[in-house]
Amino acid sequence: MNFTVAVVDDDNIILFLHKKILQKEKLEESPHTFNSAKKALDFFDNLPDNAKPVLLFLDINMPVMNGWDLLEVIHQDGFEKEVHVVMVTSSVDASDKEKAFSYSKVIDFVEKPLDEQVLQRLKLRFLQS
């Protein structure tokens, strides 16, 4: 399956690192990066109706609008973009993982930072078409 890749994290160092790892692993030559969930929502709003599905790497803990808030928006009935979410977080709280998988669009939950092994597993499990 062909995806548009986006990364949302309020830490610019993590954004840079994840972008480089995604490029190295050839998931996306030029992933979209956003340092806030609100900027990611603007991105979704501007996607054309016939856009490729989005593979979204999403942090949980962010100011103003956190990852949970963004998940709520993309799970609303009126949200029509195809999005598959990988939660990428520093949280080690088991209840966060349980909560994440209660959302139908969440396909994985991993600890920061992304690494090659996680991306290889993701490609094998979810991105084969």
TrEMBL record:
SUPFAM superfamilies: CheY-like. The lineage of its organism: Bacteria, Pseudomonadati, Bacteroidota, Flavobacteriia, Flavobacteriales. GO terms for biological process: phosphorelay signal transduction system. It comes from the Bacteria. Transmembrane segments: none annotated. The modification 4-aspartylphosphate is found at D59. InterPro entries: CheY-like_superfamily, Sig_transdc_resp-reg_receiver, TCS_response_regulator. The keyword Phosphoprotein applies. This is Response regulator. Residues 4-127 form the Response regulatory domain. SMART domains: REC.
